[in-house]
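User: Can you fold this complex?
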Amino acid sequence: MERIPILKMGRFLLVSIQVDMHDRLALQLQDDLTTRIAETGAQGVLIDISALEMVDSFIGRMLGNIAAMSSVLDARTVVVGMRPAVAITLVELGMSLPGVQTALDIEKGMELLAAVSG
Amino acid sequence: MNIAAAVETLPLLAPEHIVTVRQKVRQRAVELGFSLVEQTKIVTAASELARNTILHGGGGRAIIDVVSNGSRRGLRLTFEDDGAGIANLELAMKDGYSTVGGLGLGLSGAKRLSNEFDLQSAPGKGTRVVIARWK
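Assistant: Here's the predicted assembly.
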């Protein structure tokens, strides 16, 4: 079955979404990430969405769920690399991703994770 | 509005078809010379409505066509199903209202992302949503 790879880098997990995600793939990622956080005791999750050409309410909800679930498992989530056109559209759609930390790029996201997870 | 180009009909029966619709809509929007933001808006609206057709309508179809009004050209998308229909249209259009545990942003969000929006539905009569975005 198709899966989005999750990489471990020190205390953090890294995910880069490089495909046009269908709904099942989004749900699979949500499950896989929570399992990996629990297994590895990761303190942070960085999700790179710079390749995503759109984020609809389903993908937005998945990002919110991942942030909430990782928080319950004592890990912080940062979403990085959202394209400006995606951000404009997402807000007009009615989603402002409450509870999801964001950073402009991977580097800033890693800095943020390092800072908030001590 | 006159139909100016070939009409394309795509099936919406499984969640994977949402991706196909998104890709086709993107392709047509690019061909029409839509800006990146305009492309993203119409593709996102299409994604929401395509999912509605599958989740609420039990499957149906998406129809993509290019329309023109004088010198203006636009993209018109129709989503139709033969499902249970919507009993209360006003409620269905409300932000945050969902019958499937979703966020309830599909219809209202798609309307905000489009220049034209038309919803026709009645219990037992299926649902038809038509949106258009002009360049």
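Chain B has one domain: 2-134. The mean pLDDT of chain B is 93.
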